[in-house]
Amino acid sequence: MQVYSEKIREAAKRLLSEKRVDAVIGFRRGTVPFMNEPFLAKTPEQADQFVWDGNCGINLANYLPKMTGNIAIAAKGCDSRSIVIHLLENQIKREQLYVLGIPCQAMTDKAKIQEKLNGRQILQAEDMGGTVRVSGRDFEQTFERADFLQQNCAICTHRNPVIYDELLGEPVKEQEIDRYEDIRKIESMLSEEKRLYFDDLIKPCIRCYACRNACPACYCPTCFVDESKPQWMGKTTDPTDTRTFHFLRAFHVAGRCTDCGSCERSCPVGIKMRMFTKKLEKEVKELYGYEAGVIQDQRPPLDTYRPDDPEPFLG
Amino acid sequence: MSDWEPKIIAFLCNWCSYGAADLAGVSRFQYPANIRIIRLPCSGRINPKFILAALRHGADGVWVSGCHPGDCHYIEGNMYARRKFALLKSQLEYTGILEPGRLHFSWISSAEGTKFAEMARHVVESVKAAGPARHFIKKQAEVA
Amino acid sequence: MSDIYIEKGNFIPGVIERLMGRYRVHGPVKNGRFHEFSLLKNAAEADLGFQNTRLSPKEIFHPQAERMFEFSLAKDDPQAGILKEADKDFSPRVVLGIRPCDAKAFQLDDANFITETIKDPWWARRREAATMIGLACDSPCPTCFCTSMGSGPYDTAGLDVLLVDTGDGYVAEVLSERGENTLLVTSGWSSVSSSVRASLADKKKAAERSIAGTFDPAAIAKREMLELYNSPIWEEVQFACINCGTCTFVCPTCWCFDIQEEVYEDKGERLRMWDSCMFPLFTLHGSGHNPRNQKTQRVRQRFMHKLKYYQDKYNSGPACVGCGRCVQACPVNIDIRQVGRQMASPDCACPA
């Protein structure tokens, strides 16, 4: 991934000095282990700060809606699909964008690594590509990154960007993998078990809306959460209200979610809310043969119809 | 328990299904009185929030009915609605918010009074079998 | 008030059980990946080997959501339309194992909730009913910076008792009459041996030394408010922020809340719930005007409030205790230590 850092810096410097773009969106080194900070460079000097490694999990397309001027953006597979969704939904114009496509080598899940350390504090984490070297006050350990990938990255089938003006590396091999094993497990539960499973899943929710804010597909000027005429659900941690929130948010991104995992990454209490969105992703794929943002001129599923659409709900 | 009667909210499109309900009434077809009707211009107007709101307020069942696809008064309203309904029903049942048998959809044209009465009977029976709704009702905020 | 000592075997479960017999005890409990301050159901639940909780213990005094008033709207009810205060439990409670930074944070919050003219009855009564038994930090997190914020791993501000883990047992520094009275229901204490006493000062120094220094809030207090407000640093600081509100929710000195009413048929209630200055809705006027409708304004507001306005208003240091939770929880790694450094130094445009 060192290679990507240099390539992003080089491309950014070039685009900024040629005035091809007004700003470049990427990541710069974070201040805590396993974190990078989204960064907007406006000058070639600032572009020197760009880095890229396995800690670039946040979806940078989140910053695009309604941006003005010409912008270059470093985009991995899922990010690029979110960019396509933004283009389809008129949140930004194609002419404004210069996409630096990054064939993704998957992001690291710091929580999984932290768990293995039995409470020992991580002071430094070095991403070496295939491995991660983690050190603390009195220990040092190396982990195989492949065993500690972010959950969505482990089952990703679109690592290569689907849209780009410049591809910064050789395309990586896409995996053939069953994305919905865990969803099918839940589908086979009884209704009561399902309810208890999801109640348990969202129990820690403090209604901070980090998941919504980190999501590139959530950009409504007035979110349904804030609608007051009528108010669809309360803002307290009442369980029924919290279930309503998670259900509706997942439904609003149906067919638009690219499973970038930013929601789970940003949740302060570790809720696995992708269990809501993945089911809809599965349904959309099975019913309408659609995958969010993969084909650039294909309308999102709820925005269109076919005369022969299936009707499994009748009765 | 034996004298519990389910409360069912029916979202009917103005042009077809509501007309069918009218026809059923005028023709004196018998069907259970548990249906409370909300008239909408089109089944395409249905927002998942409406169905959630009905459940949150204590509806034991929800029935949505519109024109047959191809016959929508607004040409394509129910075509868009189809996709919404498919995803909504599957997601509601997947998350355990809704037990099977509580949410029903139908296409009933304004000439199909008999079908309306039949479907009404079917919906009420199905919701009766599911029992009173208990888990997704907001009666008071559960807070400190 | 003297220091007393107890062996760990007598503390858990002995002391905790005695406390639970008399008070509601809140202590650190492991739940999934993180610890949280919960009402203990049994003494064994308390995990005093924890570092710190993910969410601050402010829930104990300021719940995420609570009922303030109830009212009836029934036509035939003579009491209809009258707001009645909701029943609450203000019985005595113990907060066991709270870290010094969090205890200091609640003192800072008191300045907001309990003033000469206005007293928030729910916050005040909960505070009055609580005995704070703190636990000194011997292995602070790399994100802690309490020593720069006027607190420290062995700080006693806001505490009734400070426990120090000596390995085999705990030394309890009794700091107030309330602390002394609370511990009276427990037993198993002895005097502190000279060897243990001798080690305490060194332990404190070691803990303090292990916390990296960062910006000096006094330097921010000295700067001219409008100069800071109009500083160019905010343009850069604000970019990554996604206004998610996580920082405000995990922070022990963030107290903002919203009050809403919910009505169900013929009953209603007035509720209070956490709100965040990070949300655009926070400052939306009824007219539709929003004085902070830009993200830059909201991001600037948060740091200015914590590190500048609070200092100017109360002359007692920043509204930040250096617990580091926001640094750990922020999904885009906006680091208050970095922002503070930039605010403290007018020439510093450094990224790290």
Describe the fold and architecture:
The complex is a heterotrimer of chains A (315), B (144) and C (352). With 315 residues, chain A is α/β, with parallel strands linked by helices. Chain A has helices at residues 2-17, 77-88, 110-116, 151-154, 181-187, 191-201, 210-214, 239-252, 262-266, 274-288; strands at residues 23-29, 36-41, 50-51, 71-75, 97-101, 124-127, 131-135, 140-144, 166-167. In chain A, strands 1, 2, 3, 4, 5 and 9 form a 6-stranded mixed beta sheet that branches. In chain A, strand 7 (131-135) and strand 8 form a beta hairpin. In chain A, helix 8 runs parallel beside helix 10 (274-288). Chain A is globular. Chain B has one domain. In chain B, helix 1 (17-26) crosses helix 4. In chain B, 53% of the residues are buried. The mean pLDDT of chain B is 94. By secondary structure, chain C is an alpha+beta fold. Helix content of chain C is 33%, strand content 20%. Chain C has helices at 8-22, 100-113, 121-128, 177-183, 194-209, 217-222, 225-229, 233-238, 246-250, 295-314, 325-329, 336-344, and strands at 3-7, 24-31, 34-39, 65-72, 84-85, 93-98, 130-135, 161-165, 169-174, 190-191, 257-264, 267-274. In chain C, the strands form 2 sheets. Chain C has an 8-stranded mixed beta sheet. A 4-stranded antiparallel beta sheet of chain C has the order 5-4-12-11, with no helix packed on it. The N and C termini of chain C lie far apart (45 Å). Chains in contact: A-B, A-C, B-C.
Summary tags:
heterotrimer, A: 315 residues, alpha/beta, 2 domains, 6-stranded mixed sheet, 3-stranded antiparallel sheet, 10 helices, 30% helix, 13% strand, C: 352 residues, alpha+beta, 8-stranded mixed sheet, 4-stranded antiparallel sheet, 12 strands
What is the compact description of this entry?
The complex is a heterotrimer of chains A (315), B (144) and C (352). By secondary structure, chain B is of the alpha/beta class.
